[in-house]
Amino acid sequence: MEGLSYDKPQTRKLVKMLDKAGLSHGSLLLGLAKADRNLYLSARNIPRSLIRSVSDFNAYEVMKQRRVLLTREALDALKNGLKAGKEG
Length: 88
Description:
alpha/beta; single chain; globular; about 45% helix
């Protein structure tokens, strides 16, 4: 997912986007590259959803969710974190 960012909390807009993407049913983990207060406030009231920066991911939360949605930046951060772990 690219360009997922809001100037102010907009739960209704986020729910509509998730519904259009077919992600409104079942549990969802929304992964971000870094903490985003407006996106967090938009997602916190959506049932069965978690919003986390990829640096805060843990195996239990990832496995527990039916779907995982990552922003492009979060995917890049996750890949870079995995590469850094292999090098060290």
